[in-house]
Write a structure and sequence with these properties.
about 100 residues; alpha+beta; 4 helices; elongated
């Protein structure tokens, strides 16, 4: 440990404790890069204007997609309370997402 006192500041330099191995196993490394399936039905669907049927009824919906449809926090939350109550069972979405 190194202690430096200079111009009313005290600087303490200490080595950081080792928290674990630097490298991951192959399986752990693959899990970092794994992508979740997207529910878009077409190319560049994300540039289309939000549509409640497409975003939340035909596909699995999350809060951000609902927000895209309503573009208003209060309206989004009113919808989300009802939607989540119908589509969530023991913490998991019924559609498998």
């Amino acid at each position: 440990m190194l202690l430096i006192i200079r111009d009313h500041y005290i600087i303490v330099l200490a080595p950081a404790p080792a928290s674990g191995p630097v490298f991951l196993s192959g399986r752990a490394a693959d899990s970092v890069l794994r992508r979740h399936k997207r529910y878009n039905s077409g190319v560049f669907e994300e540039v289309l204007e939000g549509n409640l049927v497409r975003e939340c009824l035909e596909e699995a919906c999350d809060l951000e997609e609902a927000r895209e449809v309503f573009e208003d926090d209060q309206k989004t939350m009113e919808f989300w309370v009802a939607y989540a109550g119908e589509h969530v069972f023991y913490g998991e979405c019924l559609s498998g997402a």
